[in-house]
Amino acid sequence: MARITASKTQQPNKPAQENAVSQIREIVRRAADKPGALLAVLEETQRQNERRYLSEEALRTIASEMGESLARVYSVATFYSYYSLTPQGKNVIVVCRGTACHTRGSLGLLQEALSRLGAQSYREDEEASYTTDDAQFTVRTVACFGQCALAPVVAVNGTIYSRMSTARLCQVINALKKGAKK
Ligand code: FES
Asked: Which of 46, 101, 155, 165 could join 106 in a cystine, given CB atoms 3.0 to 4.6 angstroms apart?
């Protein structure tokens, strides 16, 4: 039975770590002095990471390169649902489990996404984060996207889908699966 848990964080080797540091330096340099620089740096750092996440090392590097406290960088990275502190699949599906979305069927959407991608079970009382063995997909939940009037809301690779239906979600997943096989 597939377990629905966060993936383990991998420790990068030294050259990879140095490479990641210089990559972040370049991202910080390009974003310097722009409004919302920290958000942009976090977003680009996560986008460039092959497992689409912000490691502790990355957060430390961002804090030191931007002259910010680690606490502030961490609080921003954990406040916004887009950012992930654990490794993710190539495609990320985030299902809102807030009250408005729940009353409009988000549990069914979550269960559909999980079962289509091979997860066998989901306990309603736990936060879901499931990554397929081939690291092509991650399905996770968020407490609220702040777009409750458009419930149920699902984000797929950063694109928000409002009033999502099961049929539409299946179409999106099938299209991504086809893309993954190319
Ligand atoms: S409850 Fe889903 S967007 Fe607010």
From this structure: 101
